[in-house]
Design goal:
Order of helices and strands: EHEHEEEHEHEHEEEE
Largest sheet: 5 strands, parallel
Radius of gyration: 19 Å
CATH topology of the largest domain: Rossmann fold
Helix content: 25-40%
Number of strands: 11
Distance between the termini: 33 Å
Structural class: alpha/beta
CATH architecture of the largest domain: 3-Layer(aba) Sandwich
Strand content: 25-35%
Shape: elongated
């Protein structure tokens, strides 16, 4: 079951989202916490480390961006459900998986969560395969190497091959001696 935190200050919308999850994803998603405010949401996210975070933009005590500025999402899927279409660019820049406008259309919601589940499943399979390779010594690491993970692959890089690193928003680019960039 994928741990999901639901952050929404309107009770009827929280109930609608829970009902949609219950109907379409009862065996895949479990809502482990609900909140309607910034402070409590930060606490829940840091304690639980959810797989999926569904949140509104405007909530009690601030915005969801205030929450996201104060938590480590690690590999959490973030889905915004909001009435504010003018915040989409900001949401994309912080790495939102999806941005759904209210009123919630069932088909759009189901498509979004299905896609999120698929993405998480692929990541888990990839990580499982990678760990299997490491444990069977097909992929050897030493203290002289660094494992770099990109969206497409995993690379084993010798520290001596790294010329320098540059920051690009939320990402770091490693510049290597062979003129390759990761």
């Amino acid at each position: 079951m994928l741990k999901t935190i639901l952050i929404e200050d309107e009770t009827y919308i929280r109930d609608e989202i829970k009902e949609l999850i219950s109907i379409h994803f009862h065996s895949e998603i479990t809502i482990v916490a609900e909140s309607d405010n910034v402070i409590e949401s930060i606490k829940f996210i840091n304690q639980i480390s959810p797989d999926i975070l569904i949140l509104d933009i405007q909530i009690k005590g601030g915005t969801s961006f205030d929450i996201l500025d104060n938590v480590d999402l690690h590999e959490c899927i973030v889905i915004f459900i909001t009435a504010y279409n003018d915040k989409a660019i900001k949401a994309i820049k912080i790495g939102a998986f999806d941005y759904i406008l209210k009123p919630i259309l069932e088909e759009e919601f189901v498509t979004s969560l299905s896609s999120a589940i698929g993405t998480i499943s692929k990541k888990k399979r990839f990580n499982s395969n990678f760990m299997s390779e490491v444990s069977t010594n097909e992929f050897k690491t030493t203290s002289d190497n660094l494992v770099l993970k990109t969206a497409d692959s995993i690379y084993l890089v010798n520290y001596d091959d790294i010329l320098f690193c540059s920051s690009e928003g939320n990402y770091t680019t490693f510049h290597l001696t062979n003129k390759k960039k990761l």
